[in-house]
Amino acid sequence: MAPRITDATTKTGIVIVGYIAVFMLGLTSALLVGGVGGTIASVALALAVVLFCARTFRAPGEPIAPPRPWWKLTGGRTSGLVVGGLCVLQVVGQLASARVSDGAGWSLPAALLYTVLAAAFVHSALRQPARRAAPDA
After folding, report:
1. Residues paired with residue 89 on neighbouring β-strands, in sequence order
2. Helices (H), 6-76
3. What residues contact 3, with CB distance under 8 A and at least 6 apart?
4. How far, rounded to the nearest angstrom, does the alpha carbon of residue 81 sit from its chain's CA centroid?
5. Which letter does DSSP use for residue 128 in this model?
6. ∠ CA(100), CA(106), CA(112), 5° rounding?
7. Cα separation, 107 vs 91, whole angstroms
8. Statement: the pTM of the whole predicted model exceeds 0.85
9. Collapsing DSSP states into helix, strand and coil, what is residue 90?
10. Any residues with CB less than 8 A from the CB of 41 and at least 6 apart, and which?
């Protein structure tokens, strides 16, 4: 069986560490090999983190064993919209860096990738039914 992560704290930690790792890899690569290398490295790692999280994270009540449908990237609407929003922030960052970077040509494809990811997360969120609030005890 493929690994599944269900604990909210663990999932939050993985997302935060992944976000920091993408930033640090991009910065380090940019300093060592230039803006193009930094963009390529950070986008590749970001895509790997997104794919890992989408395939291994499970929401409370979500079946553990079977794989998710291809379109389902999160366990619920809220998380899909939050991650989609983070992708939009990445688009803004890529477009801003395209104006000042020597690797501006690579910032635009990266912005396109993050735009596609944002759309995929929003699509995933909107396809899922709204969760009902738990009744008060």
Report:
1. none
2. 8-33, 35-56
3. 56
4. 11
5. S
6. 105
7. 9
8. no
9. helix
10. 25, 26, 29
Q: How far apart are CA 113 and CA 109, in angstroms?
A: 6
Q: Could you tell me if 110 and 118 are in contact, meaning their C-beta atoms sit under 8 angstroms apart?
A: no
Give bridge partners of residue 5 from the DSSP assignment. 57
- What would the two tokens of residue 48 be? 């790997």
Nearest to 49 by CA among 87, 81, 82, 85: 87
Token pair of 27, please? 């910065």
* 1-52 per-position pLDDT tens digit: 678 999 999 999 999 999 899 989 988 988 898 877 888 888 899 999 999 9
Let me know: does 136 contact 116? Beta carbons within 8 Å. Answer: no
Domain ranges of the chain: 8-127
- What are all long-range contacts of 66-73, with beta carbons under 8 Å and residues at least 24 apart? 67/2, 71/120, 71/123, 71/124, 71/127, 72/124, 72/127, 72/128, 73/120, 73/121, 73/124
